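Open question from group meeting: does this chain pack into something compact, or does most of it stay loose? Before anyone orders reagents, we agreed to write out a predicted structure and look at it together. Recording both the input and the output here so the notebook holds the full record.
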Amino acid sequence: MSQSMDIKGIAMSVLALALSTSANASLIEATQATNCLRSPSAAACAYVSSAARDFVDAMDATIGEIQQEVRVWQERYRVIDESAAPELFFTATNVKHLEDADIAVRGFEQILRIQAESLIEERGTTLNDEVLATIRQVRISVAKLRMAISNVLQIEKQLRPAIASNKSSFDMNADALQSLKIATQNAYYH
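C-alpha cells returned:
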C-alpha cells in the first residue's frame, strides 16, 4: 500500500502548477501590442503601421491562447478537487510555481488595466470600436486566468494544515529522547 501511495504521490506532483510558455508569451504579447497603440511609431509597432484589423487578429490569437490556459487551470482545479489526496499536488516546487503564476498574471492584469485606461484617455476618440472591444476581451481573458489560478491557490490555502501535518514527523531515537528528558527536567527547575 505504501508503494502505491508513493507512486500516486509522484504522479500527482508531476502536475506542474505553473503557467505554460505559450500563455506567458501571450500575456507579454498583449501588453506589448496594447502599448504600441498608445505611442505608435512604424519602427516600434507593426499593428499601427497597418490596419487596425492586424491588431484585432493578433489579439484574437492571444485571447485564444489565454482562454486555452484558463481551461488548463480549470482542469487542474477539477483534478485536484476530485482527488482523494489533494495535498499531494502541493509539493514545495508546485506551490512556488503556483504563487509565481498568480503574481505574474496579477501583474499583467494591472499592466493591461493601466495601458487600457491610458490608451482610452489619450486616443479614445480615434480608436475604432473593434479595437476597443478587443482590448476589453483581452482584459476579460486575463481576469478569467487570474481567477482560475486563484481557485487552485485557494485549495492550497485550505489544505495548508493537512500539508503541514503530513510533513511533520518526529523521529524518536535515543538521542532525541535524552534531549527531551533534559529539556523537561530543566524546565521544571527554573
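Observations to bring back to the group:
Confidence is low (pLDDT under 50) at residues 1-14.
Residues 108 and 180 are 51 Å apart (CA to CA).
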